[in-house]
Structures are given as structure tokens and as C-alpha cells.
Specification:
With about 190 residues, the protein is mainly alpha-helical. It has helices at about 5-20, 25-40, 45-50, 70, 80-90, 95-115, 160-185; strands at about 55-60, 60-65, 120-125, 130, 135-140, 145-150. Helix 1 crosses helix 6, helix 2 runs antiparallel to helix 7 and helix 5 runs antiparallel to helix 6 (about 95-115).
């Protein structure tokens, strides 16, 4: 997906977190402000891939869109666990919220990339697999082939998908802004 789509979808997911988890006017305004800034963090996996120069192969074709297992794997969400643990021990709620919002922004990038034909790399496929008749059989002629998590096969440059996913993120952002604005007049 395009970087603008990643930003807008991340904006929507962060504000979903704000609508369902945060209860209070001050924190709702803070989530709205932080979401506009921290949604740029959803670009980090693509920036790191460009820096590392990673490439991936899809159905025998070497693509220039980069997906490296260190940045685009679903297991990368565990990068945030040590930070969440340390911040929780320090009892500073604003830092805990910021780390949570950064993790949500990273997750939104992974969700959108799982809709692409390249998917998310899960790891290297094993050379041998269980077989009902034989004990083991050779699975692949290329043992370095990786497993992928794909939820759909939407091309990353599809204008309709980029537009609809971006509008979805903006819609959720506007819902949170409206809810926060109306709660200001309610009391």
C-alpha cells in the first residue's frame, strides 16, 4: 500500500484505541493529537527495508517492493514488549500510552501489508514435512522459500483499495473527534 494509506489507516486504528480504551476528555484530546504525530511511525518498516535493501520473490518474480522478516513479520510486534514492561514499572502513564500507540501504528502497517500478494513473511519452510504414508518427504526444491501470511491479494498500487482504506481511517478519526467534541459540550 502507499505510505499515505499506511498513515491514514494507522490514524484510524489509533483512534479506535482512543475510543474504546481511553475514557476522559483530556486523554481523548491527547490521543487525537498524538495520533496525528505517531501515525507517521507506520512508515518505519518500509524505511528500514529501503535502508537494508531487502528484496522478496513472489511466484518466481523478483519484486522491488521490499519485505524483510526483521521488519514485516508478525513476530516483530514483540519488539515493543521490553519497552512496555519498563514503562509499566516506571508508572508513567503517558509513556505507556505512547509505546502502545507506536505498537498499534506498527500493527496497522502489518495488517495492510498482509492484504498484498507478497503478504507477511512468517519464516523459512522446513525441508521435511510429515507425510501420511512416508515418514518424511522432501518438500521443496528451494529450502530457503519462506511461508507467507496473506489475507487477500490486493495489489499494493491499487487506487481503489488505497482510497477506501484511507477513507476508512479518516472516518474513524472523524468519529473520535466528534465524540470528543460532543463530550466537551455534554458536561
Amino acid at each position: 500500500m502507499k505510505n499515505s494509506t499506511h498513515y491514514l489507516f494507522s490514524l484510524g486504528l489509533i483512534n479506535t484505541y482512543g475510543m474504546f480504551v481511553i475514557d476522559g476528555r483530556l486523554f481523548s484530546w491527547l490521543i487525537i493529537i498524538l495520533s496525528t504525530i505517531l501515525s507517521f511511525f507506520s512508515w518505519v518498516p518500509n524505511i528500514l527495508d529501503q535502508y537494508m535493501g531487502a528484496q522478496y520473490e513472489n511466484e518466481g518474480v523478483l519484486l522491488t517492493r521490499n519485505r524483510h522478516p526483521l521488519t514485516h513479520s508478525p513476530w516483530t510486534i514483540f519488539y515493543f514488549l521490553p519497552f512496555l514492561y519498563l514503562v509499566q514499572k516506571s508508572h508513567i502513564p503517558i509513556l505507556e500510552s505512547i509505546i502502545s500507540l507506536l505498537a498499534i501504528s506498527w500493527i496497522s502497517h502489518l495488517v495492510l501489508d498482509s492484504l498484498n500478494p507478497g503478504g507477511l513473511p512468517l519464516g523459512i519452510q522446513p525441508v521435511f514435512r510429515n507425510h501420511p504414508v512416508k515418514h518424511y518427504r522432501f518438500h521443496s526444491t528451494r529450502p530457503q522459500e519462506t511461508r507467507r501470511l496473506r489475507l487477500a491479494r490486493i495489489p499494493f498500487n491499487d487506487p481503489k483499495a488505497n482510497k477506501n482504506l484511507g477513507q476508512f481511517g479518516l472516518f474513524i478519526f472523524s468519529l473520535n473527534c466528534t465524540r470528543t467534541f460532543l463530550s466537551f459540550f455534554r458536561s
